[in-house]
Write a sequence for this structure.
């Protein structure tokens, strides 16, 4: 699973970026990598729904494994793609950005783990995982915002970025 998602978030992302850069007159933009989320946009909700509906209706264990595999693939690529985007966007602050990203992810995971049990108890596995699938679709769709506005956001933050680099907050080169 990790090998496949690593190839998707890494090698496939690099190939995609080169192809899109050729279309863009040879200019490579970090936001080009985010198009990898297009697969996650559909695979994650489908995997969650397969898992939830399948478990609620007693489908074969094979169907559940496929659903979990889809979710596992998206969870690992869902972490790898934004890390690569961060490094592409803010190379000299990538270490600090990675720490911030991990803190946010772990805090959300901690909170979600406390909220999912009452949700499952109240709504059942099918309704809960269908709802989580729809939430996953919505959250993943936010990549469109960064594809459209990421470059202007990076430009707006450039002055602050270079100020941090000059103060030595980022990596020394």
């Amino acid at each position: 699973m990790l090998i496949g998602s690593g190839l998707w978030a890494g090698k496939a992302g690099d190939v995609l970026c080169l192809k899109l850069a050729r279309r863009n007159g040879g200019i490579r933009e970090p936001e080009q990598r985010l198009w990898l989320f297009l697969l996650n946009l559909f695979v994650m909700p489908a995997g969650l729904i397969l898992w939830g509906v399948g478990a609620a209706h007693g489908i074969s264990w094979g169907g559940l494994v496929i659903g979990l595999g889809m979710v596992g693939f998206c969870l690992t690529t869902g972490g790898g793609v934004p890390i690569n985007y961060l490094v592409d966007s803010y190379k000299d602050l990538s270490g600090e950005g990675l720490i911030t990203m991990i803190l946010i992810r772990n805090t959300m995971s901690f909170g979600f783990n406390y909220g999912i049990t009452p949700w499952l108890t109240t709504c059942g596995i099918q309704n809960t995982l269908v709802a989580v699938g729809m939430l996953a679709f919505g959250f993943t769709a936010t990549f469109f915002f960064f594809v459209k506005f990421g470059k202007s956001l990076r430009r707006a933050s450039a002055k602050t970025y270079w100020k941090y680099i000059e103060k030595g907050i980022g990596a020394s080169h």
